[in-house]
Give the backbone structure.
Amino acid sequence: MGLACPASAATDSTTFQVTATVVSSCDVSATSLSFGAYDPVATAPLDGAATINVRCTNGTSYVVALDEGVGASATISERRMTNGAQTLTYALYQDAGRSTLWGETSGTDTVAATGTGAVQAHAMYGRAPAQQTATAGGYSDTITVTVTY
């Protein structure tokens, strides 16, 4: 009678590392700000609003700045939409009360935040002062949004 021998299997194992480096990164987009129909005879300013969307790596500090636009002689406090040589002034603000201008001097008139990894919406408020002497027609400007991180 033969005896059954248990079968034995040989094994070997090892380990290896899995690595990645998460980099600080940001992406920005903005909706257009449309003031609609401006009536130069009206006594109240014309207000509008838009949104700047920023998505940065979780924990990444960033600053959102807005330049003065492309209108001739524009400044942060008096941006200029143009129609040929004609201009229509307006300003951009960080708050709904339109008391804090939004510009490009870090620590003074920019918006600072810390990324969460999700899109963070920053409301932007515009105001075109009443009773400007602009001629009838379409006016526009282009603002550059810069996110520094």
The mean pLDDT is 96. The chain is about 0% helix and 35% strand. Strands lie at 26-30, 46-56, 61-66, 79-83, 86-93, 111-114, 119-128, 145-148.
